[in-house]
Amino acid sequence: MGVMSSRISARISAISESATLAVDAKAKAMKAAGRPVIGFGAGEPDFPTPGYIVEAAIEAARDPRFHKYTPAGGLPELKQAIAAKTLRDSGYQVDASRVLVTNGGKQAVYQAFATLLDPGDEVLVVAPYWTTYPEAIKLAGGVQVDVVTDETSGYLASVEQLEAARTERTKVLLFVSPSNPTGAVYSREQVEAIGRWAAEHGLWVVTDEIYEHLVYGGAEFTSIATAVPELGDKVVILNGVAKTYAMTGWRVGWLIGPADVVKAATNLQSHATSNVANVSQIAALGAVSGDLSAVAEMREAFDRRRQTMVRMLNDIPGVLCPEPLGAFYVYPSVKALLGKEIRGKRPQTSAELAELILEEAEVAVVPGEAFGTPGYFRLSYALGDDDLVEGVSRLQKLLSEAK
Ligand SMILES: Cc1ncc(COP(=O)(O)O)c(C=O)c1O
Question: Measured in whole angstroms, how far is the alpha carbon of residue 253 from the centre of its chain?
Fold first, then answer.
């Protein structure tokens, strides 16, 4: 054991750096050094937060009432509005007392697993998965069991696959649709089948609904909580304003669950971070109690970019890009390019290929290693149309040199 491991606890040194943020940081550093990097790494809309939300926050910032702590679990009026929004968007009826307002969806993820898991409890996680889940599960002492999917199924897991991964220790199924990083969206029938299977085996379902409003091409978002009433109270919904209202920097998310889970998670939060910034909560109140016109506009832009991206990527020999139906990511396979020579180098992994691309084409993509499935890239299409076309053109040019 080195010096580091004695200085830093085993629990915390087991946490890896967020690979998506690392790629983003490297791209930003290159940009700052004057290099014209185009970044497909970031998981945030390129739009500003809608004006009426910003105005609500400005007004609140001027009012001393909002300079104070709120209850740890959030402003009562915000919890009420989140309950109403959940009924509107998910068809899920829930009392405001079962809502916990968190510092972004991320804190909801951490607190959900911290509240549900004892050491050794297993969580079924469909791979490719968002980078934060494994760390939150590990920190809670849980054991992640991967259910690996690939492009041949559109990155959708089947009940058979889930059943093959279930053991006596399985406590939770993590269900994410639309998915980050693949953009996969489960149909209502698939959601029902998976939910019923979970209910039959008495599993908890933690479901991340943060991309609920970003679905395309006739796909529909289905909340597993509503679609499968048999799950009873063993459902925890995670959500937030970041993606729907272009509010990543405001840090407001929430967790919805049964009374005991919400109570326990609120106790945890009360000691960790207390309440979310009061002014941010007012901004979120403006967002969730307003209409969905802003996200409809973003969705239109994302849909256009999604189609451009899929078409251009599939034109590159060696790149295979299934059409995602949700979120704002594509997840192409680049396996056919590995081991080939490009500019005198022979990248053997998607991580090496991503590094070569950043150096040679000044384009940042996140390698599949970050999401539990090497051999792929994640590209966000939440960036301007011109940059998107320029970035993928650079990829086309560089990768067509592979031999
Ligand atoms: C699937 C998923 N869940 C939750 C989050 C959390 O978002 P935030 O903490 O910004 O609300 C993200 C952000 O990237 C995400 O992709």
Answer: 12
pLDDT at 153 over 60: yes
User: Would the pLDDT of 352 be above 70?
Assistant: yes
Q: Is the CB of 130 under 6 A from ligand 1?
A: yes
Centre of ligand 1 to C-alpha 109, Å, is 9
Please write the tens of the pLDDT for every residue from 125-139.
999 999 999 999 999
Residue 161 has pLDDT above 90, yes or no: yes
The reply to whether ligand 1 has any atom less than 6 angstroms from the CB of 20 is no
Strands 143-148 and 122-127, bridge-based pairing: parallel
Report whether residue 178 contacts ligand 1, using a CB cutoff of 6 Å: no
For 272-330, the pLDDT digits (tens) are 999 999 999 999 999 999 999 999 999 999 999 999 999 999 999 999 999 999 999 99
C-alpha 104 to ligand 1 mean position (Å): 7
Measured in angstroms, how far is the CA atom of residue 183 from the centroid of ligand 1? 13
Hey, is 118 helix, strand or coil?
Answer: coil
Residues in contact with 55: Cβ distance below 8 Å, sequence separation at least 6, in sequence order: 286
Nearest CA, atom 4, ligand 1? 105
What average pLDDT does this structure show over 395-399? Answer: 97
Side chain identity, residue 161: Q
Q: Which of 180, 254, 371 to mutate to test the pocket of ligand 1 (most atoms within 8 A of CB)?
A: 180
Kindly report the pTM of this predicted structure.
0.95
Rg of the chain (C-alpha set): 21
- Core vs surface per residue 296-333: b (16+ CB within 10 A) or e: eebbebbbebbeebbebbeebeebebbebbbbbbbbbb
Angle at 304 between CA 299 and CA 309, to 5 degrees: 120
